């Protein structure tokens, strides 16, 4: 059974750096073609893709947020970490990690439950 | 920046057919994907590569593509299908610009 779970702080202050961890099971990020992405959703708004990391450590970022994002993986721990710098109240959202089963196709077949991050002083 | 356009809302009675459209200039060249999201839950993939249905998704969900518009069709709508539906694709470069539509609220009357 494949599962993904997001973890991180529920509250961050403006200008701080957010670090989120996606811990997954049921698949390996060392398997050819496997990828993990981060997606966020502000309250009551649409989904927004943030970043992706591949089995071969290739990385991709949203063009609008790439200067603030870093994605990394620890294959031995089955974890993917996302950092976002200079947090602002507009970054308040539920952050999801999701699996991309075949790197040639940019879609997300399984998602974590998400973690709500509020940015407030 | 590239955008996918969906109607904000669609309403149907139980047993009827719901059609949710998604328009984007790059759709003739890029696959579209559809997700269902119920309140307080994570999205669930219901259609991939325009018209493929993942295992476990009911047959009443189908997808189609024509030019710059893709359509999610739900035949014989049930009350449990009431949810937000999002289309997703990429711009014509194919990478680093994944885009979601604004979402469509499906109401089952």
How is this structure best described in words?
- The complex is a heterodimer of chains A (121) and B (109).
- Chain A is built from no helices and 11 strands.
- In chain A, a hairpin with a 6-residue loop joins strand 4 and strand 5.
- In chain A, the strands form 2 sheets. In chain A, strands 2, 4, 5, 6, 9, 10 and 11 form a 7-stranded mixed β-sheet that branches.
- Chain A is 0% helix and 49% strand.
- Chain A has 121 residues and is mainly β.
- Chain B has 109 residues and is an all-beta fold.
- Chain B is 0% helix and 43% strand.
- Chain B has no helices and 9 strands.
- In chain B, strands 1, 3, 4, 7, 8 and 9 form a 6-stranded mixed β-sheet that branches. Chain B has a 3-stranded antiparallel β-sheet with strand order 2-6-5, with no helix packed on it.
- In chain B, strand 7 and strand 8 form a beta hairpin.
- The model of chain B has no long low-confidence stretch (mean pLDDT 94).
- Chains A and B meet through strand 5 and strand 10 of A and strand 7 and strand 8 of B.
How would you describe this structure in keywords?
heterodimer, A: seven-stranded mixed sheet, 0% helix, B: 109 residues, mainly beta, six-stranded mixed sheet, three-stranded antiparallel sheet
Identify the most extensive interface between protein chains.
Answer: A-B, 22 and 25 residues
Q: Supply the helix-strand structural class of chain A.
A: mainly beta
Percent in strands of chain A? over 45%
- The N- to C-terminal Cα distance of chain B equals 36 Å
Order of helices and strands of chain A: EEEEEEEEEEE
Q: Structural class from helices and strands of chain B?
A: mainly beta
Which regions of chain A have little confidence, pLDDT < 50, spanning 5+ residues? Answer: none
Mean pLDDT reading of chain A:
96
Distance between the first and last residues' Cα of chain A: 39 Å
